[in-house]
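User: I'll paste a sequence; please echo it back and then give the predicted structure.

Assistant: Echoing your sequence first, then the prediction.
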Amino acid sequence: MSRRHGYRLPALAEYGPNAGVDEPHHRATAEELVERALDHLGSDRATLKIETRAVHDAAADALLDAASSAAVLVVGARGLGGLERLRIGSVSQRVLRHAPCTVVIAR
């Protein structure tokens, strides 16, 4: 199982003259986020082969890249309540339309 998390650096305006100097910090933060998500597996985690990667890319692009070598791609869709629960977000929608493999959207 491969788990990826795409992250983007803040806009240049937020960085000022030191644009990009904090990229290692953003990568470390993304990797920590993935590890925390995997902690929810508890003891089951030891029985699974999981590869994690934090990539500097938009979420849909990172997922589509992962899908190029996958049999199935599982993505989550955030239900925001009300009628929003009936729709999927832009990332899930793009992945669903462009993935070269089967896509499962989980809520």
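The chain has a mean pLDDT of 79. The first helix runs from residue 12 to 15.
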